[in-house]
Amino acid sequence: MHYGAHSTDALMFITHRPDLVFERGEGSWLYDHTGKKYLDFIQGWAVNCLGHCPPEIVQALGAQASRLINPSPAFYNGPMIELAGLLTANSCFERVFFANTGAEANEGAIKLARKWGRLHRDGAYEIITFGHGFHGRTLATMSASGKAGWDTLYHPQVSGFPKVPYNDIVAVDAQIGPKTVAVMLEPVQGEGGVIPAQLEFLKALRELTRQRGILLIVDEVQTGMGRTGKLFAHQQAEIEPDIMTLGKGIGGGVPLAALLARENVCCFEPGDQGGTYNGNPLMTAVGLAVIQRLLSPGFLDGVVARGEYLATQLRTLSARHGLAGERGAGLLRALVLDDERAPQIVQRALEGQPLGLLLNAPRPNLLRFMPALNVSEAEIDTMIGMLDALLAR
Length: 393
Ligand SMILES: *Cc1c(COP(=O)(O)O)cnc(C)c1O
Hints:
It contains twelve helices and 19 strands. It is α/β, with parallel strands linked by helices and about 400 residues long.
């Protein structure tokens, strides 16, 4: 399509995009180039945790941009120190490394585990990961992912990521050998179709990895930062992992990610890890504004309450249309259809008149909901009403 004097053909083709350009956002709402309004239950893939253009992020960006954008990663800056302080004070981890994307944070976690294995596990380097897991789009994180077809797409893969079935502790146990250094998983498989790990599985995994002297890495890029109603999803199982990665919600819409680790695992030496933008104050100032909001009194209780409200409404919808139920945690949920029409529903929701609705279909029989964490009950009602009409057609 054309937009002003230019064609979208100048962009490298990597995905089918609809013929519209979003120009403005506010809370749970987006506006395209024709002025049409859309209710957004994707929010940049669970990224905009406070909705579009929330005042605290606009304020933090503006204030930091006019003060200091980039002193270089070789120097400390204020927001980097404050954000690391709040993350460690509110988790079981002692140290933080800031990155730009979830994949980059996971690469850091993989490197940290391999270095630790070289020092403490006789060169062990294998990291056990899970079928249908998703850890990012770099070569190593694609290799760690269990997505169908990714094992051959950019052959050869990075080696050292044996896969086992999710929620299967016996399979994990059987896979652990002398070369194993860690187990890495998402507390809820997001891209895989909103499949929560059973709390007993997470507890057993912590126990098993501790007994066998290997590391437990949780990829909380999608589940962290309040998404499931706790600040971090592994806290639902009351476990303490060795390493955690964050992305998506931590930046509320700007590129920010983090690698967190227990003190005894932090074995990077100067030269082992870095990156031009790591800890840059413009992004960490936003992260600081985000976490301050999430930690404000009652905020996470609100996520729990509206997560339950969304779940109840989805169950009612499922019963009314004879569907296969719903699942998820907090405000990361999915509706399971009785057929494979999820992509068509997503398309028709987008084209809705006068209001559009943004939904996601990670699988042909599944609709995923990842609204802003401060979405209102009224907005959930509006979405449910629109979806009800779409399902009836
Ligand atoms: C999105 C996602 C990633 C990758 O994050 P990017 O910022 O796209 O690199 C990694 N792990 C999980 C669980 C994710 O949901």
